[in-house]
Amino acid sequence: MSADRRGVDALALTVERLRQDLERAQETADARALIGIATGILVERGHGGPSEADRYLRRLADTAGLPLLEVAADIVNAASDDGLSEALRPDASERENGPRHAGTALRLRTAESGTRSDDPQTAAEALLRHAVSPLGGTALAVWRAAFDGSLDLVGHAGLTAVEARRWRYVPPGVGTLPQLALTDGRSRWYGSLPDGFPGIGTAAGPVGARAILPARLGGRIMGFLEACWPATRSPLNGAEFRRLETLADLCAHTFTGEDTTTDATVGPLADLADGLLDPSMVLRPLVDDEGRIGEFLITHVNRYFTDLAGGVPLAGKRLLEAFPLAARDGDLYDCLARVHSTGEALRTERMAVAALAGSVPLTVMAAVSISRFGEETLLSLRVEREADRLAALLHHVQRLAQVGGFEENLVTGEISWSRQLFDLHGLPPGSSPVPLRRLPSYVHPDDSVSADRFLRTLMQRHRPASTAFRLRRADGIVRHIRVIAEPVTDGLGALVSVRGAFQDVSTHHWTEVALAATRGQLADAELQAAERNRLALQLQQAIMPPVPAPLDMSGLHVAVRYRPAEKEHLVGGDWYDAVVLPSKEIMVAVGDVAGHGIGAATDMIVLRNALRGLATTGAGPAQLMSWLNSVAHHLTDQISATAVCGLYSPETGVLRWARAGHPAPVLIRDGHASALPLPRGILLGAVAEARYEEQQLTLTSGDRLLLYTDGLVERRGVSVEKSLEQLLVSAGGPTTGLEEHLDQLLLHSRSDTDDDTCLIGIQMS
Known about the structure:
With about 775 residues, the protein is of the alpha+beta class. It folds into 4 domains: about 30-175 and about 185-195 and about 230-255, no CATH class; about 265-385, Beta-Lactamase; about 390-505, PAS domain (Beta-Lactamase, 2-Layer Sandwich), CATH 3.30.450; about 545-765, 4-Layer Sandwich (Phosphatase 2c, domain 1). About 40% of the residues lie in helices and about 25% in strands. The chain has a 6-stranded antiparallel beta sheet with strand order 3-2-1-6-5-4. The protein has a 6-stranded antiparallel beta sheet with strand order 17-18-27-26-23-24, with helices on one face. A hairpin with a 5-residue loop joins β7 and β8 (about 295-300). α2 (about 50-65) packs across α3 (about 70-80), α6 (about 100-115) packs parallel to α10 and α7 (about 120-130) packs antiparallel against α10 (about 240-250). The longest helix is centred in the N-terminal third of the chain and has 42 residues, at about 5-45. The protein is elongated and about 165 Å long. It starts with a helix and ends with a strand. This is SpoIIE family protein phosphatase.
């Protein structure tokens, strides 16, 4: 036999011996645990202290001639009133096959002692060794079930490490046997499994029987035990199945303990956390017997995580132990609890995270991401640093202002551009930056002189410089650019680098061009408007001077006042007329054409001249208003206007008058002012044919009559009736001369519309 072969055989013998030693050590540890439970029962029943109870237990075994472990198992079984005691009672098949072997109770009580640990892995090994292996099973998997149907492999025995890592997390919907059992929560037995069925332990080929046993705590399914047999076999009898179900329920208690494992086997989230570039941690909720969350356990942190509490290791700690201020401020803890309860992920750009640096409270702002995966929660933090915040702020400022910065080292040739500068030049990120010396080749030919002057000032004179030019980009687009730069020199005054910024001012340029054009158009429009207003004012003043000479005719004194608009653009179509007709009657009239400007002035001239011409026919005021309406409607651009016209007969002293939508004349008699009753009459130009009503007024000595346009009384926000009442108050009272009276009415007028005003006063001598 070769030396190599002998070495391999010796190594194999050593491995086998060590394996046997490990099994004996595990059995010894399980035996000590069972003996310790029995000793505790004897102490409770008055057999002295622990030492005396241990000696009493050994005397019982010697007296009965039984192994010490069997006596311990019998004592535990007799003292217990639990599910396992019930399961140890023989069923019919066992009674038919003779008395139950005492080793069954011993094995099951020893397996139970293994499940007393808070470690599901220890429980799995004890269950396989003492409960499943005696029934022919060769492997065991302990699964913890999540609310979403996913499974975590928290303990295993009889399986290879590779197989365990492969199945350490089962996503929802895979269809493994424990996931199928979630639908009804019942135990299941499978005598054999078909090829290709998804499940743990199937990678080596055909598998045998399987038992799926729910692990319940307080009636709630916490997970499953999956026991595996290497070949097909008949179902377990009722007693054997009940014993395994009882041990599965005992195993559920191990799911609520604190798992301080910090390596990659903690769960699938550990690998995910390690793959993140942000500081991240995996947390597991700690629940009580009623399923309520009392705390979170930090089971894993990645290498980027910075402990805000001062560098203390976090894995294995409770959250509020590591971050005690999280309970006081509440945001982080409350968010974790809400995400775990609802399953809805949380993302926020800014959250205050409070911690203690020694004994000093410390609060930092961080972007926080919290997600739930099964029963575990992933927390990721990105602490906001001042430099990062300022850099992000600078980037947004450059983006909004369309500014890109650069620095060019003239010694090494290294050029640094900000991201915005690539966009300004129409280059993709990662392209080679353009050196300053090549700037003229990108400038519009008409701006080359400015670019050359900029480079000479900067490179030769070593002075800061700025200029504006049109940049011709590689994609054919021309942009208007402003550049500002400064030189950087060494101690001897030699130029070593240049730094500065480019700004795209195209929008500003075209805005200035548009504003310049708009300003030109506005200037032209203002000039034309001023010219039209000046012409309108001239027309109005030519026809109606502000203070025409008074008329004295046949005992009738007529005075006129005209007040033009204060602003030229408000020059309107107010007009008046007082003339002796061929029939010796005296016509007095006032009118107001709608609108302002030259159009209103020319329309006023049309109506005033038309009324003079029509009055020579000898027709009465009502007929004159009807004809004037036809002129306004048919012979103009359908203007609209108001007017009042009166014809006074010196022989009879009677004034006949009519109105077209105009305010009523005011009669002042014996110091009392009153408005004349209004005859019917629509404004001029509103309809093609209109009839007007005519009224008569006999004037006596001392009577005074006022005809006016609405510019005398019209006020913003005041009704016409209220304005007329105020005019009557002003017009009444002690009498003065007619012209002085008209001047006072204009002076004290409360009108605030800045409109034209015509006022005619008629005084009987």
